[in-house]
């Protein structure tokens, strides 16, 4: 019998958080009176996260462990966990306790009301600088302008996804996984629950501005083709200006003869047009690179070993999945 509730947690160098995470989440889950599992994905940690997880699995077989063959990044690690979660309701959550597990009963209550996806939206962002808040805001605003999909603001991966929505999500095969966007794309009846986000329990975040910038680029390129189309209009605009300017130059030459000096204007024009063209090429490159990633059709992740996955909940046996392509077939 699959458990009612699956918690999915990607972990990268979280050795200081594993025990605290388990204690707090298991405490909340045990209070619910439902069957549950915690699917932990070890995303190429360099500390003893994996050892702690296997030890936990030995003590409590409801903790399942997937060990990826290397660091694949949070979004892919989460995908691996979601692929192997078997619950009727699935809740992705961060290992650093920034998403309060105490909110789980509230998510569950909304689900019982009949909502298929319950988003957990942060009311406040504690422990974050104003620069991060401002950039996050600007990003959400830009994304909203560029795509027709409503991606809820200030909502991370913490949410409840019911089985039907989960099965729909698993049919999205892209390797470029901008999870918040994908969650929004599948639609279904969605509800929102609000909470206050706390600073990390322990350890340091692996996100810096460069990684956030790249996440933002992933988000925009996978959900909008506006940056590609804009160039036709810009090009048309510049060509129109050039046409009028050229007509003016021809007429002026016809009536007033040749006026040679013009070095400055030629240089400015060449540099300006050259710069514009390079930006256009860069945008093309962003999309082309992502198309290349997709057409290679590599498996999204590789599993080195797993514990409790695929085995029945009661036996808790250790099964080694080996180095085989991990993505379960898409239905
Ligand atoms: N994480 C991961 N792989 C990575 C980076 C992070 O699985 O390459 C996990 C990490 O262990 C944590 C979650 O993703 O459970 C969120 O990471 P973090 O707290 O560093 O991000 P932030 O809260 O700053 O967005
Ligand atoms: Mg965090």
How would you briefly describe this protein structure?
The chain is of the alpha/beta class. It is 47% helix and 17% strand. It has a nine-stranded mixed beta sheet with strand order 7-5-6-4-1-2-3-8-9, with helices on both faces.
What does this structure look like?
The protein has 331 residues and is α/β, with parallel strands linked by helices. It folds into two domains: 5-224 and 298-307, Spore Coat Polysaccharide Biosynthesis Protein SpsA, Chain A; 226-295, no CATH class. It is built from ten helices and nine strands. Strands 7-5-6-4-1-2-3-8-9 form a nine-stranded mixed beta sheet, sandwiched between helices. The longest helix has 33 residues, at 263-295. The radius of gyration is 25 Å and the shape is elongated. The protein starts with a strand and ends in a 12-residue tail after the last strand. Bound molecules: uridine-5'-diphosphate (UDP) and magnesium ion.
Entry keywords:
331 residues; alpha/beta; Spore Coat Polysaccharide Biosynthesis Protein SpsA, Chain A; 2 domains; nine-stranded mixed beta sheet; 17% strand; binds uridine-5'-diphosphate; binds magnesium ion
Ends: how far apart?
A: 21 Å
Distinct small molecules bound, one entry per kind: uridine-5'-diphosphate, magnesium ion
**Spatial order of the strands in the main sheet?**
7-5-6-4-1-2-3-8-9
Overall strand count: 9
Quote the average pLDDT. 83
Q: What is the makeup of the main sheet?
A: 9 strands, mixed
Query: What pattern of helices and strands is seen along the backbone?
Result: EHEHEHEHEHEHHEHHHEE
Give the class from helix and strand content and strand pairing: alpha/beta
How many discrete domains? 2
CATH class of the largest domain: Alpha Beta
Radius of gyration: 25 Å
Residues in helices, as a percent range: 40-55%
């Amino acid at each position: 019998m699959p458990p009612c509730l699956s918690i999915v947690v990607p972990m990268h160098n979280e050795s200081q958080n594993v025990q605290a995470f388990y204690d707090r989440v298991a405490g909340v889950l045990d209070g619910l009176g439902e069957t549950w599992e915690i699917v932990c994905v070890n995303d190429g940690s360099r500390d003893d996260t994996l050892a702690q997880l296997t030890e936990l699995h030995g003590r409590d077989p409801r903790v399942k462990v997937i060990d990826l063959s290397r660091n694949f990044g949070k979004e892919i690690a989460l995908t691996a966990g979601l692929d192997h979660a078997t619950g009727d309701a699935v809740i992705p959550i961060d290992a650093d306790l920034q998403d309060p597990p105490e909110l789980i009963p509230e998510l569950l209550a909304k689900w019982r009301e009949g909502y298929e996806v319950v988003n957990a939206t942060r009311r406040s962002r504690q422990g974050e600088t104003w620069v991060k808040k401002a950039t996050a805001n600007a990003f959400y605003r830009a994304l909203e302008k560029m795509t027709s999909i409503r991606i809820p603001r200030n909502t991370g991966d913490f949410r409840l996804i019911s089985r039907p929505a989960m099965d729909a999500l698993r049919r999205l095969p892209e390797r470029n996984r901008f999870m918040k966007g994908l969650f929004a794309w599948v639609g279904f009846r969605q509800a929102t629950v609000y909470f206050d986000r706390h600073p990390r329990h322990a350890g340091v975040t692996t996100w810096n501005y460069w990684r956030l910038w790249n996440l933002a680029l992933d988000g925009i390129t996978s959900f909008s083709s506006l940056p590609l189309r804009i160039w036709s209009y810009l090009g048309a605009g510049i060509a129109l200006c050039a046409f009028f300017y050229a007509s003016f130059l021809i007429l002026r030459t016809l009536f007033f003869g040749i006026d040679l000096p013009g070095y400055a204007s030629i240089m400015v024009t060449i540099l300006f047009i050259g710069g514009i063209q390079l930006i256009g090429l860069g945008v093309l490159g962003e999309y082309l690179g992502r198309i290349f990633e997709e057409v290679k059709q590599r498996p999204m992740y590789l599993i080195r070993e797993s514990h409790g996955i695929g085995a029945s909940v009661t036996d808790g046996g250790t099964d080694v999945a080996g180095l085989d392509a991990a993505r379960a077939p898409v239905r």
